[in-house]
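seq as requested:
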Amino acid sequence: MKKKEFHWILVYAFVLVLLTTMPYFLGYMVENEEWRFTGFIIGVEDGNSYIAKMLLGSAGSWLFKSPYSSMEQNGVIAFLPYILLGKLASGPGIHEQLVVLYHLFRIFVTPLAIYATYQFISLFIKEVPWRRLATILSTAGGGLGWLFVIVGKGEWHGSLPMDWISPEWFGFLAIFGTPHLILARALLLLGLTLYLTSPIKKERAWLAGGSFILLGLVHPLGMATAIAVVSVHQCAIGITAYSRKSSLIWKKWLKLGLKAILTPLPLIVYYFIRFSTDPYLILWTKQNRIFSPNPIHIFIAYGLVLIPAILSVKRILDFRRWTGLAILAWLLAFPIFAYSPHNLQRRLPDGIWVVWTILAILGLDLISKRWLKKPQLLGTIFVALCLPTSFLLLISAIRYSVLRSSPIFRKGEEVEVFEWLRVEAAPKSIVLSSFATGNALPAWAPVIVVLGHGPETADHISVEADVSAFYGGRMNDQEMIEFIQDYRISYIFWGPLERVPDGIDLASSPLFELRFEIGDFQLYEVQ
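struct tokens:
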């Protein structure tokens, strides 16, 4: 990579970071005593859970134990970046510290992801202007989702378009709001770049495996994607080598592939054992269901790049026969990844948009050089057609960042109760609340909630029914005592979201003592 290319990466990363940080900055600008900004505009529920994981680290944890379930947990190596970042925060204003650290994490890993993307693209695209367009398309581009949303077909066939909801199928959403997925994308592409260039320097195969280990610590499912991509590449090389009677080539690549795959094997075994034997992790995995949409959404997502991508297939084989097989095999395996019998099937095709981008840009280059006098003009127009989804997401985020409404903002009085719990309650005290309150509470106080996050709350449906029955006044005193003992509840949160018509009257029950009250919010302690 030349110095000018590296400088361009830094400038582009700065622009992208500036644009994606603006809505969060505005959120804090309009915050007041009545409404407190959560620090998130998209994916607020998951955002609260990431801050809660950082708070775990601040409280001394090294292993992940979800604060969204009262079930006993043994802990697991997961969400490591958030737990480690949490150790940098302490004292008053810890929520604000954690949110700032979260966004600094996002800001600093964005240039790394853009660098890794550019390096991977450079394996297949020679000319610098086309590399730049491919990088912009990979990190800020989207599909035709913007068109369907504009014409009122946003929920077509049971799902929003993928460029609106999936950071795995595209790239901009991760840069906008999910730093561990940005870092995971960077490690995935860096590892694959090392692996694909390992025939030049054999030690790069080991380095690729090391990159996959780091990927597994950041995002275990991303490590599975990396190994799957290397595996399908090995299969493609084996088939091609057999048809061409090139056994030496196949053996050479096989050795390199085994090094890249076997290096992270101990971590793979660790995760397999933990997630197949630990009772809580089994329930968490079972509840964590993120399925791919109707296949027609593939055409909505990638229809714009389909034709130029098809045109470039022969060219990429001619240019980089054995290396080029990697992205072609990856693309052919995409439907298998996306619709595999796995409860997180939508997450498995991570990085596939980069493959589509490379093939599309190569196809546009081919078309331009044959019929146009200014080769990059068509590419620039094409990239511009892929940017509206990201533009609309930014505009929507800016709009909602100044509205001061839940769940992006929380009532200031509600946060006062959260902060009272942070100071006065014993760490890991178990608090009962509604789902919405429970989602935000562990981001402000190092407590455990009975209910608050779909996948992480063990037996979520059963727990929600019990909580509804309690607040709805459908339990007698003995049933309430058993409920409280079963969930080991210490505090009861009582606010507008917990009050229901003809529901329980906590103030009149001898089982509970009022400990803190402000405005419409009360906190009761179990006697």
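Residues 94-122 form the longest helix (29 residues).
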